[in-house]
Amino acid sequence: MVVENWLVYISTILILMITPGPSQLLMLSNSITNGFQRSIFTAAGDLSANFIQMLIASVGLVGIIHSSKEFFVLVKWAGVAYLMYLGLRLILAKTVRKPHSPEHIRSRRSLYWQGFITSAANPKAVIFFAALFPQFINPLEALFGQFVILSSTYLIIDALFLFFYGKFAEWISGRLLPSARQHLNKISGSFLIGAAILLGLKDIESR
């Protein structure tokens, strides 16, 4: 792959990721209530789903998505309902006086699947990747090598954004006054509901 094309690709991804999406808001929420180290499992779930979506896009299964629109709409709204449920449960939960208190810590597996489901609930991301990758692929070069470069670049940048959001949320929550910490659940739950709303508003052209 030509270096100039790769740099343009990176610039395109950075522009697309400036605005926080459902996965970033979920990362904020989980980092506030579970700490940054555990929230990394949320990022891992998100990135795993992204990689699977890239593979699906690369083998030309976009047509199946178009022909099975009703199924994928169902998957999307199931994801929205799941995030809404998590958000409301946090908002209605008993207040906590310490961040990352044991009774509110979720398992690593649970955090991973939250990240995976949130990303997988947007199956139209496959179409996004199928539309994005060809813009930067040279048909005269080996396709596998170009796919590896494009997908790994995207995943690395996405991970850096997720880690930034997670670390920032942990930094803020660690500096809140004791009187303000009791609102952490409500803040975290609001992020999850915001993520659900963003996911619900996703259209076929957006990730």
Summarize the helices and strands and which ones pair or pack.
Layout: H1 3-17, H2 22-34, H3 36-58, H4 62-67, H5 69-92, H6 108-120, H7 125-132, H8 143-174, H9 178-181, H10 184-201
Please provide a written account of the structure.
α1 (3-17) packs parallel to α8, α2 packs antiparallel against α3 and α3 (36-58) packs antiparallel against α8. The chain has helices at 3-17, 22-34, 36-58, 62-67, 69-92, 108-120, 125-132, 143-174, 178-181, 184-201. It has one domain (24-201). It is 75% helix and 0% strand. The two termini are 24 Å apart. The chain is mainly α and 207 residues long.
Strand content: under 5%
Shape from CA axes? globular
Q: Structural class given helices, strands, pairing?
A: mainly alpha
How far is the N terminus from the C terminus? 24 Å
Helix percent reads over 70%
| Radius of gyration based on Cα positions | 18 Å
Order of helices and strands: HHHHHHHHHH
Largest sheet: none
Return the average pLDDT rounded to an integer. Answer: 76
Number of domains: 1
Flag low-confidence runs.
none
Counting DSSP E segments of at least 2 residues, the number of strands comes to: 0
Question: Tally the helices: what do you get?
Answer: 10
